[in-house]
Amino acid sequence: xxxxxxxxxxxxxxxxxxxxxxxxxxxxxxxxxxxxxxxxxxxxxxxxxxxxxxxxxxxxxxxxxxxxxxxxxxxxxxxxxxxxxxxxxxxxxxxxxxxxxxxxxxxxxxxxxxxxxxxxxxxxxxxxxxxxxxxxxxxxxxxxxxxxxxxxxxxxxxxxxxxxxxxxxxxxxxxxxxxxxxxxxxxxxxxxxxxxxxxxxxxxxxxxxxxxxxxxxxxxxxxxx
Length: 225
What we know:
alpha/beta
């Protein structure tokens, strides 16, 4: 079954870090905007995620070193399009919305665009995850002056400039370090919004207080640098 376009000359590459997301992948990959390339970075899945992604026509990259940042970095290294997007593989956000996220880049009105999550149901975004996100957004504002309401994973930027940022975190701090370094370099950072759906399967990060705390701890380290 071919779900997506696998052209290496696509105008936009969509980087999809993946760890055991077999149930969500077909839905996610079927919604990648037409003509764009999906790069699924398999981060050690044991449920056949890599095989499903390949069957759906995605470019599959293997990254055995565990960590969200490791997967994002591997995807960025494999990307060739000048515009790159990041999106989770758990069906909590519809990749079709990426067309709106990249628009400020294409019109040259922004350098980094983040998608603010708006939950469609109360359970889509657990309370502990919301609290952790709000605390980090406040700390980011104090550190950089950038006012964001969400530090969510869906975002878009120009690949060449993103590589130049030299992001070093390979764990949960990767998304925040991207924003901090972009702010320090004077990037124009904008926020749009996307519906946030209940994820498919169990969350590896924000599904528990412990997972949320570990992510917040990683991100606080970034803010102290």
